[in-house]
Design goal:
The protein is an all-beta fold. It contains no helices and six strands. It is 0% helix and 41% strand. The protein is globular and about 35 Å long. The N terminus is likely disordered.
């Protein structure tokens, strides 16, 4: 299930830059390409494999998010 919440202005209309985390998610990504995504002003959670990759704004530039960790999906 995808949850859509308010997101920083313009972010969902253009790629964001993800830094750190799994190699498949590093770089410029379009959030619309992900099937399961949870986001808010404070974080992005992207479903990846058997868990979620967590990103927070890096503070360096708008649209840049730093990987902060991973949580597994409960079985």
């Amino acid at each position: 299930m995808t949850q859509t919440l308010p997101f920083p202005s313009g972010t969902t209309n253009s790629p964001v830059r993800l830094e750190g985390g799994p190699a498949e998610l590093i770089g410029n990504v379009d959030l619309k390409d992900f099937r399961e995504l949870i986001f808010s002003d404070e974080k992005i959670k992207i479903r990846h494999g058997n868990g979620y990759e967590h990103y927070t704004p890096s503070g360096n530039a708008p649209g840049v998010y730093q990987w902060v960790g991973r949580t597994k999906i409960a079985e």
